[in-house]
Amino acid sequence: MFIGRESELNFLEDKYSQAGGQLVVLYGRRRVGKTETLRQFCKGKPHIFFSCRECGDKMQLKAFSEKMLKEKIPAAAYITEFADWEKAFRSVADLPYGDQKRLLVIDEFPYMCKGNAAIPSTLQNLWDEFLKDENVMIVLCGSAMSFIEKDLLSEKNPLYGRATGIYKMTEMGFYDSIKFFPDYSDRDKVLAYSVLGGIPHYLKQFDNKLSLAENIKKNILTKGCALYSEVEFLLRQELRETPLYNSVIEAVALGNTRLNDISMKSLIEDTSKTSVYLKNLIELGIVQREFSVSESVKEKANTNRGLYKLTDNFFRFWYAFVFINYSELESGDVDGVYKYSVEPSLHEFAAAVFEDICREYVRKLQKADALPFRYSKIGRWWGKTTVRNKASARQAESEIDILATSKDMSQYLVGECKFRNQPFRYSEFLDTKAKLISQQERAEFYYYLFSESGFDEKIVEAASSDSRITLCDLADIVSCKTSIK
Fold first, then answer.
1. pLDDT (tens digit, 9 = 90+) per residue, 222-256?
2. For 219, what's the count of Cα atoms within 13 Å in the CB-facing half-sphere?
3. How, if at all, do strands 136-142 and 102-107 pair?
4. Quick one: how far is CA 439 from the chain centroid?
């Protein structure tokens, strides 16, 4: 069963329905589901789906020719193989699809270019002279994100300005991901997402009929299963110096978020080298540099600003529990590693992911026009805030899980997230309310409190008499309930 990807499919369908030639680039990191999405899009449409291989140019052209000539185009009557790529691409317009668009999907297009660097120029010339005015749609798909962004689509490169659509696929969000686990409890859906993230290939490995613990042991911790060596396999495909990258990723996975801390933990003395490794991991979609929601564009340009975090939940889980227990898992001690390493820490491990889920929920509320105002910025906030007592006031480091602001900064939404086996306490709400106190004099504040285990009586009482306090329990969040109080 195909799950999710409505935005991607709607984008492709829109391009398919438009008149004239369409040249679409769809790309994203490995395992994100590009190929399956394209196959779903092609269902019910006459099309050519060509998957490039890592082979020489002549072999690639031969395979492409065979695929095209099977479609009974005019050239099939007198040749068995195209002489060159210009003739091969030109034949797309001859596909016998009547009034329907001639649809060609080239999967892993970078492999084709690797065998023949002139292919982008060939395609560009043919597009400009001929194909852009034909009833064709060519989709170029690839996982080599750096190649596509820097060598294919950037200025001064052949296909710059030719693409009629460019779509970068990212991992699924929480609400599509949990459709893989319809029988799980709300709590286990959050935990499963915190383990696997939104990569379809990872989500498919879990059996919805098995418990979360059984799935983790059987499909991640057991030597030989698909996810046991997935991280190492992907890194070896994409990067050299994998031992150093392992050290950097492990440092980030274990909570080191600043450049200096990552360098120290990974034992790389030169922070400029660490910065290069992190940059490469960002390009692969494994790491991201996060800024406080209040940071300006100028501050974001400062290389010393921002915090680093893993964007891929599964990578974070793998380095936190598999990588550090590798010797025990190699010897088959799956139950021991789960019982003494994973089980005691899994709930706390999921708390940071719960914050991401709550931010996604707030975005859903905005789309449903269910918030008290329309925000222009949303994210995490950290910085200094004023702490007052009877005698004095002082500045202290503070953090807000979710901060959303209106365009004119006259309205604030402050969100606090608690994923634990205890109710959200009123004293914690008062701590949240004390943050950004200096702005409260000139702006209207709304408080959204998110809790796995409900709220104590004082918060419930306060929310019932104050429309600026909204309580969201786990059922509200997981079901994406939009009418809340």
1. 999 999 999 999 888 888 888 899 999 999 988 89
2. 19
3. parallel
4. 33
How long a stretch of residues is the chain?
Answer: 485
Residue in this structure with the two tokens 């007198």, named with its chain if needed: 78
Q: What is the pLDDT of residues 410-467, one digit of tens each?
A: 999 999 999 999 999 999 999 999 998 888 889 999 999 999 999 999 999 999 999 9
Residue 390 has pLDDT above 70, yes or no: no
C-beta neighbour count of 368 within 10 angstroms:
12
Q: For the whole model, what pTM was predicted?
A: 0.91
Q: How far apart are CA 182 and CA 209, in angstroms?
A: 10
* Rounded distance between C-alpha atoms, residue 1 and residue 9, angstroms: 15
Name the residue with tokens 């086996």: 421
Average pLDDT over residues 309-326: 94
